[in-house]
Amino acid sequence: MADEPPAGPAGRAPARRPARQPARARTAELTEQQATACDRLGSPLYGALLRRVAEDVTAGGPCAEALAGYEHAPGADAVALRLLGGVHALVLTGRAPGLAAHYPRAGGRLDPGRPDAGWPTVRAAVRDNLPWVRDWLTRPPQTNEVGRATLLVTGLLRVLPPGYPVRLFELGASAGLNLLADRFRYTAGPFGYGPAHSPVVLRNAWQDAPPDRLRQAAAATPALTFAERHGCDLRPIDPASPDGALALRAYLWPDQPERTARLAGALAVAAEHPPEVRPIGAAAFLREVTVRPATLTVLWHSIMRQYVPPDEWTAVERELTRPAESSSAEAPFAHLTFEPLRPGAGAGHRFVLTVRAGTGEPEVLAEAPPHGLPARPFEERPA
């Protein structure tokens, strides 16, 4: 995920206060919805644990106390995932050794028949570490999914003039890992693109064989050249800091080893090539973006649109007009997005790669799960 609005003023947790049952029921309902999304996205552990969290909230247990004050938070704030991120951080830092046996990320074993077997230990960890968990509720779950780089590179190859370097600008860049997309390896069957020895290998990047147009573009441009890389985020994460790396790891779902391996590789790449992410709003960041001759200027963002307030997004669209209208064949500009097909749609909807060159019509090229893998060509189908 990209940057999310803080849960309270200046990112502070709201004051705890007794919750009325209807408000608590809403929290439980949103948690159930998140459980369903985790099931669909391949995390039986979090699907099962979130259902138990919902039950505990309804019953007024430790999870209800942890989430007190968040009963009216927008669903996009994903407060239940923040809670489990705090619990995962307890595991990763050794503060809750009893939990490790239930977390594959920490060497534990997941019982396929009972993925919620560790629930009593999770519940106890929340009860015994309320200040820690409450602090994690103020942190947006910025997983900075490098799997989404598959869509970025696909879009770049679609619009890149032969021989042109890329100036990349990213909104909601989090830790800036996807600013390093040219340093990752993408594979699908016999197809491969990117540095052969990259520590980040996005295997099965395409559900089937990559489309012919992508293979042809990759053959015409064996390697991408980036002239500049810039990102912005209201609350950027420093991937080189212990706290930043912990946040990125803690918000990964601990029963998905492929994502863990991709993040580890991306952190190694970032340590060698530190990305630049400025703590600034999207519209203010865009005011500085101009086109340049003999260079493709690209604006990119992924799964961040839903977290931007309407007034701010109106300003973003206004700022986007300037580089688009000033672009030309000699100084091209492209806007690449990986966002829900319909604005405001959640995890149960389609997420698509859209490419717009200059002031041309947007073109939807591909779709993928919100974590970015595997991609497949976009096909029109009834809403």
Question: What best-fitting shape do the alpha-carbon axes yield?
Answer: globular
Strands side by side in the biggest sheet: 6-5-1-7-8-9-10-11
Number of helices: 12
Oligomerization category of the chains in this entry: single chain
**Helices and strands, in N-to-C order?**
HHHHHHHEEEEHEHHEHEHEEEE
Q: In this structure, how is the largest beta sheet organized?
A: 8 strands, mixed
Query: Low-confidence segments, ≥5 residues, pLDDT <50?
Result: 1-11
Helix amount: 25-40%
How confident is the prediction overall: mean pLDDT?
91
Please state the CA-atom Rg, rounded to the nearest Å: 21 Å
Distance between the ends:
25 Å
* Strand proportion: 5-15%
Q: Say how many strands there are.
A: 11
Secondary-structure class: alpha/beta
Q: Which tags fit this structure?
A:
36% helix; 383 residues; three-stranded mixed beta sheet; 12 helices; disordered N terminus; single chain; eight-stranded mixed beta sheet; alpha/beta; globular
Explain what the structure shows.
With 383 residues, this protein is of the alpha/beta class. Helix content is 36%, strand content 14%. The strands form two sheets. Strands 6-5-1-7-8-9-10-11 form an eight-stranded mixed β-sheet, sandwiched between helices. Strand 2 and strand 3 form a beta hairpin. Helix 4 crosses helix 9.
Map the helices and strands.
Layout: H1 21-40, H2 44-59, H3 62-66, H4 79-92, H5 119-128, H6 130-136, H7 149-159, E1 166-171, E2 185-188, E3 191-193, E4 201-202, H8 212-220, E5 226-232, H9 242-250, H10 257-272, E6 277-278, H11 282-286, E7 296-302, H12 310-326, E8 333-340, E9 351-357, E10 363-368, E11 376-377
Parallel strand pairs: 1-5, 1-7, 2-4, 5-6, 7-8
Antiparallel strand pairs: 2-3, 8-9, 9-10, 10-11
Helix pairs in contact: 1-2, 4-6, 4-9
